Amino acid sequence: MQKQDVLNTIKLIREKSSKRKFSQTVDLVINLKGINIKKQEEKVELYIQLPHKIEKKSKLGAFVDSSLKEEAKKYFDTVISKEEFDIWKSKIKEQKSLAREHDFFIAQADLMAKMAGVFGKTLGSRGKMPNPKAGCVVPRTANFGELSNKLKNTIRIQTKSDAVIRAGIAKESMKDEDIADNMLSVYNAVLEKLPQHKNNILNVGLKFTMGPLVTIGSQDKEDKQAKKTKK
Q1: I need a labelling partner for 118 at 20 to 30 A (CA). Which of 44, 95, 96, 212 fits?
Q2: In the predicted model, what is the mean pLDDT of residues 23-46?
Q3: How far apart are the first and last CA of the chain?
Q4: How is the chain classified by DSSP, letter by letter?
Q5: What domain range is 125 assigned to?
Q6: Does position 227 have pLDDT exceeding 50, yes or no?
């Protein structure tokens, strides 16, 4: 996919979308084909660090032991120490709120088993368990500042109940070039993950939160059709 095609599509969604009083999210939609998402090996799940920061605040949580709690508090919104795990066992309602309000959780590697015993059911069913693919299962010596900055610019890409990937990859207020860079970083990562690469992609589109979906390359097709009509 050429960057200019993406830039043309961004221009189109700006033209076709009504202005709002807030900066809308730029949503990427990739429709897949030849993929059976009922098969575990054909599901897509990726954690991608975007080249340009999305203008949104990610909320991060951490599970660490007491010796690291104060350091973790400098970089994470919620920090739960090993010594507090037992208190959370019966707080199912609070666990659900915790999962809902946070984008990512990290956990000290040697606490994963105990943490999973307390929070696993709630976080796991919501796809919020600390995931090693995202670098969220860490040693005691982890650099919390570096990890926090990375996660604030990381998005999770996955297929859910259908063969479609949907992801917020930018904000309307960002420069077109930056939006295109973010979009292409996600597209190329997905392409690499698919077993038949481009042959598994039906089409790709972009939209603002409250705007219409525009398929990348659709303008070229319209132009060709218009030329044929003129002839």
Answers
A1: 44
A2: 90
A3: 29
A4: --HHHHHHHHHHHHHHSPP-SS--EEEEEEEE-S--TTSGGG--EEEEE-SS--SS---EEEEE-HHHHHHHHTT-SEEEEGGGHHHHTT-HHHHHHHHHH-SEEEEEGGGHHHHHHHHHHHHHTTT-S--GGGT-EE-TT--HHHHHHHHHTEEEEEB-SSSEEEEEEEETTS-HHHHHHHHHHHHHHHHHHSTTGGGGEEEEEEEETTS--EETTHHHHHHHHHHHHH-
A5: 60-152
A6: no
The pTM of the full predicted model, rounded to 2 decimals, is 0.80
- The Cα–Cα gap between 228 and 222 comes to 10
The verdict on 128 and 146 lying in the same domain is yes
At position 204, the amino acid (one-letter code) is: V
**Token pair for residue 99?**
């999962």
- For the chain, what is the largest distance between any 2 Cα atoms, rounded to a whole number of angstroms? 77
> What is the rounded CA–CA span in Å between residue 200 and residue 37?
12
Domain containing 7 — which CATH number? 3.30.190.20
Q: Residue 86 carries which side chain, given as an amino acid letter?
A: D
User: Could you tell me the two tokens for 143?
Assistant: 């650099």
Q: Which among 132, 152, 172 is the end of a domain? A: 152
